[in-house]
Every structure is written in C-alpha cells, then in structure tokens.
Amino acid sequence: MPRPGTTRLVTALGALPMLVSLPGCLIASGKTVRESGPQISESTLRAIDYRTTTTEWLLAAFGEPANRVCLSDGAEILRYDSDVRTTEGSYFLMLAASSTNRIERTCWWFETRDGRVMRAWGEKCDPITVDSINPPPSNDAAIGIDAPRTNPSTTSPATTAANSPADPQTPVTPSER
User: Fold this and answer.
1) Is residue 19 included in any domain, yes or no?
2) Is residue 82 classed exposed, middle or buried when 0-12, 13-18 and 19+ CB atoms within 10 A define those classes?
3) For 81-109, what is each residue's pLDDT tens digit?
4) For the chain, what is the domain count?
C-alpha cells in the first residue's frame, strides 16, 4: 500500500509537463497585413505625364484593370482596386478563438483617350470589417465599389469638374477628395 500523499505527488508530477507547456498556449494573438491589387502611390501618380503617358504604360505598370469601360465619346475608363486586408486573431487555451478582418479599398480611375492618359482620380471606400458579428457582404456591389460614383459619360460639366483636377497635370488623390 502506498504511503499517504504519494498518489497526489505522482499525479502532480505527471501533470507537470502539461502545466509547463500551457503558458505558451494560454493566450496567443497575431496580426497580418496583406495587400492586393496595385498599390498606387502619390509618387506613382506624379510619374504620369497627362496627355503623354500611354494606356500601355498603365497596363505595364499596374496590370489589367478590375474594370474597363468604353464611353460613347471615345474615352475609356480603367478602374484599379487596391486592397489592404488586416487580419487580427487570438485564441485562449486552444478552446476559444476569434478573428477580425478589416479591408480598406481604394479605387483608382484613369480616363484615357486615343491611347493617352487624360486624368486620374482615386476614392477610398468605407472600410469593411468582417468577424463573427459582421459577416462578409455577398459581393462587391453590395459595398458600393462596383463602379465610380459618377458616370463620366452622363455627368454635367459641374460634376465632372468636381471629380477631376483643375489642372489635368495634377492628379486627385483620395486624401484630397
């Protein structure tokens, strides 16, 4: 018959390796940032020489656009979407976990005519947060990023002036809108 307290000591010693390994997985968290689409910067926009830079240069620099629209007046609008997705997650004892995705999208539009860039503008969309409380929208149209807010083929001159730089050599960046 074992001495009193020996069983408790053996149980405690047997559980010790498990207890030592637990602090590493009690609580853990992490954050990742992933960019998709061309990350167009103000310096990139400054490299565009309006009325001289070609559509081919845009395609070489940024790839195929998310959308291309040919207008009845001969102009073409190219739209590029730049996304920054931030994912943060944590778990507790490998029993409970949570994660949140935040998507920030900037849409860039380039108007070309006769193969030359005439103007460019960008617009930041409202950030999207996806987690267990906020499920993802069913598609891009549901979050308002399917098309420009103004249609260049149907806008009045006043609306067009509001959406384009006063000087076609000066790009409009999302922070200026």
Assistant:
1) no
2) buried
3) 999 999 988 877 667 778 888 999 999 99
4) 1
**pLDDT at position 116, please?**
97
12 within some domain: no
- Distance between CA 96 and CA 40 in Å, rounded? 38
Q: Write a three-state SS string for the chain.
A: CCCCCHHHHHHHHHHHHHHHHHHHHCEEEEEEEEEECCCCCHHHHHCCCCCCCEHHHHHHHHCCCCEEEECCCCEEEEEEEEEEEEEEEEEECCCEEEEEEEEEEEEEEEEEECCEEEEEEEEECCCEEECCCCCCCCCHHHHCCCCCCCCCCCCCHHHHHHHCCCCCCCCECHHHC
Full residue range of the structural domain in which residue 127 is found: 25-166
User: The whole model's pTM is what?
Assistant: 0.59
9 domain-assigned: no
Q: Is residue 39 part of a domain?
A: yes
